[in-house]
Amino acid sequence: MNIGEHARSALWLGVSFLIFIASLSGAYALFQTSARINEQTYHLTASTDPNIHSTLKIDNPYTCTGAEVRQTIHQIDSLQVDIMVNGTLYPKDLDPDEVDVSSIELDQKYTPAYIRNTEGQLVMLRFT
User: Fold this and answer.
1) pTM over 0.70
2) Which superkingdom does the taxonomy of this entry point to (predicted)?
């Protein structure tokens, strides 16, 4: 190695050291900012009224197609719940291979309602 290569190595070592110091400074600043934001969030949530809760509003109710309703009726054995579609009751002990679902329009939109008993178990699935 001659003197030029030593100078080049020293220069690269110095540049690498400066990049390392700049990275450490940036990481420290990011850490301090994150800690400050967390502290402000904690104080903000601690000072709010605990009786007020924010809720998300669902603009459009969930709808499903008639094809999905028909598929649900064909899976009635695994669901073990009664299914009502526009006033027509399909009991849970129904044979899915022999049921007539031709009255359910495939392209019509249905809104499901989940009927539960007092223990919270699903007892009926109603599509309107």
Assistant:
1) no
2) Bacteria
